[in-house]
Each structure stands twice: as structure tokens, then as C-alpha cells.
Design goal:
Layout lengths: L6 H24 L1 H9 L7 H32 L2 H18 L15 H24 L1 H4 L5 H28 L15 H4 L1 H19 L14 H15 L4 H32 L3 H29 L1 H21 L3 H29 L5 H13 L4 H13 L2 H19 L4 H8 L11
Length: 445
């Protein structure tokens, strides 16, 4: 039996990762986050005020996504709105990213800074970015045959890191480090050359997201025909799923474990650049170089370990990555110099990509064929339900102890606890319950 799938649809789907990773790489982690804490927020020792404010923005995002994702996922299932909702979330995220260009640095703004304006647009863009992931991820079980779901998920993550890397190079050499004003217009006055990287991200996201909407088909055969009852049907379905999900006990166990270890990943993404800047005096250029290195290593890890995922299974792959992440985080906490911090950063890069990829593909193996959006809504819920705790705790610890190391120590605990909970997941039982029996790898071409 051969594994047959639409290659154009697969690569168009993966290209969306190439598009949207520019947002997480440049806005959430490496450029705008560090620029906000150092220049837009009021100045403070070790950038504590900016770090605390940014943590509040990430916290609000997590709460909003946790509340909304199961409902919008179920609504997409009932109405056949997956592609429509993905288009809406993409457009709103792009608009919100454009608006991040306008808040000025603390010294330049008319009323002592524009931190609240910047946080408002960041939260809008970030919430819709995360909600878009519900619908994007839900396409995976439809376009990938069971014996290739791990590597196809890895293609997406790998292309995502490549996209983030290329966009980072453009931001660094065309905008941030340009000797002459970009296009003769964007000067370094009021950080214009750095703020303009948001415009680059918005354009990048919009352009490279287009192939998915043209070439990936949506199965609408199970959509509710009576559109007037769509909201009532969605609420009813969601209630049934909350009751029935107890029958999918491996899904529940996995989502609980992911809820914890993903908190650590969310915190790393939100504060990786801030940690490097506050603990090791990284400049904006240094942080960009850190982002480039992390994207290279994460892309290599996601692409290479996607094959490992199909051979060993999603659970074992996640466990391997968590061991690596625990070791790398511990090194970052005790790092006596920049050299050791770089060792830790490369280690995190290698394992963070395959961790995310294998988590997405493992749920894809557990999802019943008629509830993909809904279960990926719960997947997003598990990623955000307690995700506010990591950033919030990070901000509190940094404010209390005055060091970035105190904040990052919370990440270590999340990886350890999540890894221990993952031991309770039975992957074979989860696949059998979903009715997605894997194809024998020896049958694949």
C-alpha cells in the first residue's frame, strides 16, 4: 500500500509556517520584544519594568486564546469555516503587526512613552496569530497520510524556522544595521529603522500565506447545513465533546502534559531575547544574531527529527526533546559567561523545533476524523490555559530578585513536570481510539 497525498497541498500548507514564523521570530521573541522592554517601556534596572509589562501582554494573550480556541475550533468544524477563519485571523494579525510600527520610544513619545499602545496592538496581533494556529494545525491530519504525519509536520516547522531565519537576515542587514536610511526614508531617528521591521513581518506574512488559501482544499462535507443554528449547534457539540473527551483518555493525558511543558516553551519564546539582553548585555544586533543561530539549529532539528518521529513515535520523540531542553535550560541558568550561554541557546534551538512538531503530529494521530478543528482547539487551549503562569512568574521573579536568571529558572520546572506527566500517555491506545491506524512503514514507497 502506497502513501498517496497531494504534494502541492502539503508544501502550500507548510509554506504558511514559513510565512507566520516571521511574527514569532521578529515580533514576539527577538526584535520587538527586546526593543519594547529597552526603549518603549519606562527605563529601569535590568529592564525590569519593560519585562514585567511584556509579561502582562503575553499573559493576556494566553488567557484570551485559552478561552476562545475550543469554541472557534468547534465552530469551524460545524460550519466548514476552517479556511475562512484562518484568512480572518491572518488578516487581523497582519494589520496589528503594521500598527506596531507607530508607538514611539519612551524619550520621543509625547506623553512619556507609548507602552500601552504598543501592548494593545501586540496583544491583538498575537491573539489572532495563535487562533490562526488552531485552523492551520487542523489541516495536518487531512493532508498527511498516517505513516508520514511526523515528517510532514516537521516540514512545516522546518520551513517555519527557515522563514524566520531569512526574514531575520533581511531585518538585520537591510533595516537594523543599514548604514544609509532604508529606501532613503527609514532613518534611525526614534528607532524608525527597528520599528519598521514590523512592516517587513506584515508583508512577509501576507505574501507567503497565500498559497495555502489557493491550493489546500477544505472538506466541508460534515458542515452543518442549517446556518441559522450554527452557534447553537456549536455550543451543543462543545458540551458533548467536554463530556466525551473523557473517553479519549490518552488525549486528555497528553494535553495535560503539554499544558505544562508548553508553558516553558511560551516563556522561552517571549523572553529569550530579553534574557540575553538583561543577563549578558546583548545589543539589538547580538539578539538578532542569536535569533539567526536559533532558527538555523531549530530548523535542522525539526526537519531531521520529523523522520525520527515517524520511526519512534511522537511520545518518545517529545521525551527526547524534553531531556535536551532541561539540560540546555539548566546551563543557561548557571552560565558564567556568554560562551556558555551560547551553548545553552544552541541546545534549546536543536530541541525546541522537534518538540513542537512532534506534539502537533502526536495529537494528529489521536484526533477523530470528524473533529479535527475542535480537538486542535483543545490543543491550543492546552497550550494557553496555564501559559500565562510562565510569563507572569518570569516577570514577578525578575522584579523580585532583579536578575533574569531568577525568571528563567521557572522554565526548568515546567519542562521537568511536563516530562513526568508525559510518561502516563499510551500512544498506541490513543491511535486505536481515534481510528487512525498507522500504515506499515514497509508499505511506503
Amino acid at each position: 500500500m502506497s502513501s498517496r497525498y497531494d504534494k502541492r497541498a502539503v508544501w502550500s500548507w507548510a509554506l504558511y509556517d514559513f510565512a507566520n514564523s516571521s511574527f514569532t521570530t521578529l515580533v514576539v521573541t527577538f526584535i520587538y520584544a527586546t526593543y519594547f522592554t529597552k526603549f518603549i517601556a519606562p527605563p529601569s534596572e535590568a529592564d525590569a519594568i519593560g519585562t514585567a509589562l511584556w509579561s502582562r501582554g503575553v499573559t493576556i494573550t494566553a488567557i484570551a486564546v485559552a478561552v476562545m480556541s475550543p469554541f472557534v475550533g468547534a465552530l469551524a468544524d460545524r460550519g466548514g469555516f476552517r479556511k475562512l477563519f484562518l484568512m480572518i485571523t491572518t488578516v487581523v494579525c497582519v494589520i496589528g503587526t503594521v500598527m506596531l510600527y507607530f508607538p514611539l520610544p519612551f524619550e520621543s513619545a509625547a506623553v512619556g512613552g507609548a507602552a500601552m499602545e504598543a501592548l494593545f496592538w501586540f496583544v491583538i496581533a498575537n491573539v489572532f496569530f495563535e487562533l490562526g494556529g488552531v485552523f492551520y494545525n487542523a489541516f495536518l491530519p487531512d493532508i498527511a497520510p498516517p505513516d508520514r504525519i511526523g515528517r510532514i509536520s516537521g516540514y512545516g516547522w522546518g520551513l517555519g524556522y527557515i522563514g524566520g531565519l531569512v526574514c531575520m537576515f533581511l531585518a538585520l542587514f537591510v533595516f537594523v544595521q543599514a548604514e544609509e536610511p532604508v529606501f532613503g526614508l527609514l532613518t534611525k531617528e526614534a528607532g524608525q529603522h527597528v520599528r519598521a521591521t514590523n512592516l517587513l513581518v506584515a508583508g512577509w506574512f501576507a505574501i507567503f500565506a497565500l498559497p495555502l488559501f489557493f491550493f489546500v482544499k477544505e472538506d466541508r462535507s460534515k458542515a452543518t447545513q442549517q446556518k441559522s443554528r450554527i452557534f447553537a449547534d456549536t455550543v451543543s457539540q462543545l458540551k458533548r465533546t467536554f463530556t466525551e473527551i473523557r473517553d479519549y483518555r490518552q488525549v486528555v493525558r497528553f494535553l495535560v502534559a503539554r499544558m505544562i511543558y508548553n508553558d516553558g516553551l511560551v516563556t522561552v519564546f517571549a523572553f529569550g531575547g530579553i534574557f540575553a539582553q538583561g543577563a549578558f548585555d546583548f545589543t539589538t544586533e547580538d539578539v538578532l544574531m542569536l535569533g539567526i543561530v536559533l532558527n538555523i539549529t531549530a530548523g535542522i532539528g525539526a526537519l531531521s527529527m520529523g523522520y525520527l518521529d515517524d520511526k519512534l513515535g511522537g511520545k518518545r520523540t517529545i521525551q527526547i526533546t524534553l531531556i535536551g531542553l532541561i539540560a540546555a535550560t539548566l546551563i543557561a541558568i548557571v552560565a558564567p559567561s556568554r560562551t556558555w550561554f551560547w551553548v545553552a541557546a544552541i541546545g534549546i534551538g536543536i530541541f525546541v523545533g522537534p518538540n513542537q512538531s512532534a506534539s502537533r503530529s502526536l495529537l494528529g494521530r489521536f484526533v477523530p476524523p470528524d473533529k479535527e478543528n475542535e480537538f486542535y482547539g483543545f490543543f491550543a487551549f492546552s497550550g494557553k490555559a496555564t501559559a500565562f503562569l510562565g510569563p507572569l512568574l518570569y516577570g514577578i521573579l525578575v522584579s523580585t530578585f532583579g536578575t533574569q536568571q531568577a525568571g528563567i529558572s521557572a522554565v526548568l520546572l515546567m519542562f521537568v513536570v511536563g516530562g513526568l506527566l508525559l510518561f502516563t500517555v499510551d500512544e498506541k491506545e490513543g491511535i486505536a481510539k481515534a481510528g487512525r491506524m498507522p500504515v506499515d512503514p514497509s508499505d511506503a514507497p
